[in-house]
Design goal:
Elements lengths: L4 H8 L5 H13 L1 H15 L15 H8 L5 H12 L2 H16 L8 H9 L8 H9 L20 H24 L1 H4 L5 H26 L8 E3 L8 E3 L9 H11 L68 E3 L6 E4 L4 E4 L19 H4 L4 E2 L5 E6 L4 E13 L7 E12 L12 E6 L2 E7 L5 E9 L2 H5 L4 H7 L9 E10 L2 E4 L7 E3 L4 E7 L3 E2 L3 E2 L21 H16 L3 H4 L9 H13 L3 H9 L4 H17 L1 H12 L4 H12 L3 H4 L2 H11 L4 H15 L11 H17 L7
Parallel strand pairs: 9-10
Antiparallel strand pairs: 1-2, 3-7, 4-5, 4-6, 7-8, 8-9, 9-12, 10-11, 11-14, 12-13, 13-16, 14-15, 16-17, 16-18
Helix pairs in contact: 2-3, 18-20, 19-20, 20-21, 21-22, 22-25, 24-25
């Protein structure tokens, strides 16, 4: 598929099939010029006061632009028009916005007649008053207000023209009444019912015998002219006759010919109307095959006909209403929300996406599902994220760092890759015990349904990627590493889920449970998902009070410190000014306050920017920045094999392969069993004596995480102070039989 400006606009407006969209996305990613053009289109569409009011803007004929968007022009003319469009920001913004609006108006829009007439009457130049113009036309001898021009408002329809349909309808009604009055069948004298039935039946039998005999002599099918009519009240059968009607209608001829194959050899079947005639009626149904149906004489007759038994009935398809996808409303600073664009393989701030600038921390009615799409998004540790769905009746408060994705369809829910959230009922929606809020938690390829039991129910959820033990023992090849090192979120690690009921109760339906389990206050459920699809057995505690709950479980009423607010504001300004978050935060690493560097590392960790994190780790930075980079690299390695291979390749390009292996082991983390192994502890002490600052920083960070003490060791201190701290560590380890923990 050719990458033209029109296909680029269709790609940006999500109007291409998935296969073509994937192809165009790859071409955009491989072309720096096209990438810059995409950013330019998005920028000019959001820019205000793009055109200078005091300067004339050269514009293309609107009809020519319409034919260009409809692909009705020749290739040479298309090339000329695209050159003109790209040469002007104002023209590019107008064409891009027009293409987007036309794409949104695929479905017909209902416009009130009053509004349509008003729009037709408006002057495009804005110099004519519609009210004065219409009044001037209605009043004879009065000139219309405004300057004289070729444009004239829509002529108002006169009252006399509106009465013509009413007069025609009245005349037709009088003619219909006159026809009814002149009909002798309806208003003529009637005989008594039994005598009339006997005379009509005898006449009908005689006439039928005569017609059958004539048809047999002429070798033609009989042409009956009677139809059986239902009489629901009296239970009798009346035979309507009309000599002016044709003997056999066209539909009966076609059906009879199709079913018999020889019109002259068989008699066409009659069409008998449905009747409530009892078994003891005076005129029981004849055992002979009835004749073909004729059109009733009286057009006002209320009789209904049944199609022949051998005809094919028309099946009317039953239309079902399509399911309405769930709408997601986000409450977040649009600058802090980072969104992954899978086709182009890049991250960008939500404020730079068309429509994202309307989202804010306060409650709003902006449906973010079509804006973000099926991609991953998340926030760092400093910024919260609130997701609400008015139809489902729940509120999900997410705490960074988190990576989440919206579930498509009418069921709704969130796919949580990593992070924490608190689930509660939406206070703005009235509580209904019959329809309780249901939240679908997607972990890997599994789905767990949580039903809130009361309006006061609050649930805390946490999903953590855990690297499987067997995955580390599998051999790795260079081919596999080269294939997966550049991929993002190729998750193959285990995901551990922990759920705690803080208030109320919740009904939990996991893939491994046949029935929903009820969890009450302070009860906790823990399970894991192996390989994204195999869910383990859910372990539920006995309901005793949970000790040492994390601080994020509880609402924090403390206000943000002024210095923290200043740091957050600086980060938000940088994220909104640049398209790539990794490029935006690099300037924070050079600040004198190391907390700015920590904010930058948190953004790099959320976006899985492995190369920049390794550069920060090997650079001369504050220890707090180094530790933040270690945490980010650990999270990436625990998420996928692609992340582990990317970290390994980055280490081997910076240090020898023999020195990279111990650092890889420490980046994965230090377990309690390893801390109790004297051999592992001896290696840690040796790394404290290493000449590489990276090795010293990693070793003391892991040892401090286990023992909660660093014994005065600082990786950036001079060699004499480091030796004194190492001797203190050695004495403590010798007293503990060579272990870090008892």
């Amino acid at each position: 598929m050719r990458l033209t400006l029109r296909t680029l606009l269709a790609y940006l407006d999500d109007r291409l099939p998935p296969a073509n969209a994937r192809e165009i996305g790859q071409k955009i990613a491989n072309s720096p010029f096209t990438t810059d053009l995409v950013e330019r289109i998005r920028d000019v569409k959001r820019r205000r006061r793009l055109a200078d009011p005091g300067k004339a803007q050269p514009m293309i004929e609107p009809n020519l632009i319409a034919e260009y968007l409809d692909d009705q022009l020749t290739p040479d003319l298309v090339a000329r028009i695209e050159r003109e469009i790209l040469s002007s920001d104002a023209m590019l913004a107008e064409v891009a916005a027009t293409h987007e609006i036309l794409g949104l108006l695929r479905d017909p829009v209902t416009v009130e007649p009053r509004l349509r007439d008003r729009l037709y009457g408006l002057d495009p130049s804005g110099k004519t008053s519609l009210v004065r113009t219409l009044n001037a036309e209605s009043a004879p001898g009065t000139a219309a207000a405004g300057p004289a021009s070729a444009w004239k408002p829509l002529t108002v329809q006169k009252t006399s023209s509106k009465r013509i349909p009413v007069i025609v309808a009245g005349v037709l009604g009088l003619i219909w009444v006159a026809v009814l009055i002149s009909d002798s069948t309806l208003f003529g004298p009637k005989k008594s019912q039994p005598v009339a039935q006997q005379e009509v039946a005898a006449a009908d039998a005689k006439a039928a015998d005569g017609r059958i005999a004539d048809a047999a002599d002429a070798k033609e099918p009989a042409k009956p002219d009677q139809v059986v009519v239902a009489d629901d009240k009296a239970g009798t059968v009346d035979i309507a006759k009309n000599d002016n009607q044709p003997a056999v209608n066209d539909a009966a001829k076609v059906n009879g010919a199709a079913n018999s194959g020889d019109v002259g050899s068989k008699k066409p079947d009659a069409v008998v109307a449905a009747t409530d005639n009892p078994a003891g009626s005076a005129n029981p149904p004849s055992t002979e095959k009835p004749m073909a149906e004729t059109t009733p004489a009286d057009a006002s007759s209320t009789s209904t006909s049944i199609p022949p038994a051998n005809s094919n009935p028309i099946e009317v398809p039953i239309e079902t209403e399509p399911e309405v996808p769930v709408s997601y409303y986000l409450q977040v600073d649009s600058r802090s929300l980072l969104v992954r664009e899978e086709l182009m393989g890049r991250w960008q701030s939500f404020i730079r996406i068309p429509g994202g600038d309307a989202v804010e921390n306060a409650p709003n009615n902006v449906n973010c599902a079509p804006i973000i799409g099926p991609g991953w998004f998340g926030v760092t540790e400093r910024f919260p994220l609130v997701v609400t769905t008015g139809a489902k009746g729940y509120v999900a408060e997410l705490y960074g760092p988190c990576l989440v994705r919206m579930q498509r369809g009418a069921s709704g829910g969130l796919d949580l890759l990593s992070g924490r959230l608190k689930l509660s009922a939406n206070a703005a929606v009235a509580w209904n015990d019959e329809v309780r809020p249901e939240f679908n938690l997607g972990v890997g390829q599994t789905m767990t349904r949580l039903t809130l039991g009361s309006a006061e129910t609050r649930v805390a959820l946490q999903v953590t990627p855990v690297m499987p033990v067997l995955q580390d023992l599998l051999p790795t090849t260079d081919d596999t590493a080269s294939e997966t090192a550049g991929t993002f979120l190729q998750i193959d690690s285990d995901l551990q889920v922990e759920m705690t009921v803080l208030e109320g109760f919740v009904l939990m339906q996991s893939p491994e449970q046949t029935e929903a389990a009820q969890l009450k206050q302070n009860q906790r459920a823990i399970w894991s998902v192996a390989g994204l699809k195999d869910s383990s057995t859910v372990m539920i505690d006995n309901g005793e009070a949970v000790s040492a709950l994390p601080g994020w479980y509880f609402d924090s009423s403390s206000e943000t410190l002024p210095e923290i607010s200043k740091q957050n504001l600086r980060l938000l300004e940088l994220l909104s000014n640049n398209s790539e978050p990794g490029d935006s935060v690099l300037t924070l690493l050079d600040e004198r306050n190391p907390q700015y560097g920590v904010l930058a590392v948190q953004v790099l960790s959320l976006t899985h920017d492995t190369d920049r994190l390794l550069s920060v780790l090997f650079g001369v930075r504050d220890e707090s920045i180094h530790r933040a980079a270690i945490d980010g690299l650990t999270a990436i390695m625990n998420s996928s094999s692609a992340g582990r291979k990317a970290v390994r390749l980055g280490l081997e390009t910076r240090i020898p392969k023999a020195d990279a292996e111990p650092i890889m082991q420490l980046l994965k983390g230090l377990t309690n069993s390893q801390a109790a192994d004297p051999n592992v502890v001896a290696d840690l002490i040796a790394m404290l004596e290493s000449e590489r600052p990276v090795a010293r920083t990693l070793a003391i960070y892991r040892m401090e995480q286990i023992t909660k003490d660093r014994k005065g060791f600082h990786p950036d201190a001079d060699s004499s102070r480091r030796r004194d701290a190492i001797r203190r560590w050695q004495r403590a380890i010798d007293q503990n039989s060579g272990k870090l923990i008892p």
